[in-house]
Amino acid sequence: MSIKKTTPTDNSVQGPEDLPEPKLSKALLKEFIDQFNAKLKEINDTARSSHTKWRILLEQEGIEPSSEKDKQNARQSKQFNLAVAFPAEYRKVLQQLQKNTQSELESLQNRPTESSEASKLLDSFNRFTLSDLVTIELQRYLGDIKPKVSMADVFANAAGSLNKYSAGDSGDKSYSVKCKTCGAARSEEEQYGDCFYCGTPLF
Ligand SMILES: [Zn+2]
Prior knowledge:
The protein has 203 residues and is mainly alpha-helical. It is 55% helix and 0% strand. The N and C termini lie far apart (58 Å). 19% of the residues are buried. The site of zinc ion has 8 residues, from loops. This is Zinc ribbon domain-containing protein. It comes from Flavivirga spongiicola. Residues 1-21 are annotated as: Disordered.
């Protein structure tokens, strides 16, 4: 400690350098949550708007895009829409945001909270926003990109499914496991336990 501090005389006002590390205040938490919301909004806007920007975002985040085979698989099924961001890719980006936010939050949480209001805000952000982030945003995204169904499609699908059953497809084992999140059937080649379309673990 060679730097000599200008020590304030007894009754002088203390400078900011003399203050201990500030407590975790409501204002600071709000700022943190605003930043989180801005990041989430950017991800959501990009996922719904531009293929090029989405590819750049995946690169920046170091996330491997879904395989062409998985995309082909979705293309063949009229049930799904490829959308801008393939749902399994979108899920990975959300998971990364969740992980990063959690670790940033952990370093903030080392500080004592300033007020019970701040503690409440922290608790509700943790419990209702962060812990359910992936599930909630993925469901919303799947709903947004779902192909719009016209009455003509409904009749066509009804006829199609009758044909399918009469052809005896219902006994096919590969259709026995369905993704609870998006309804995709597990493809026969899928050895791993994640849904090819939305990335949710099947088991
Ligand atoms: Zn799925």
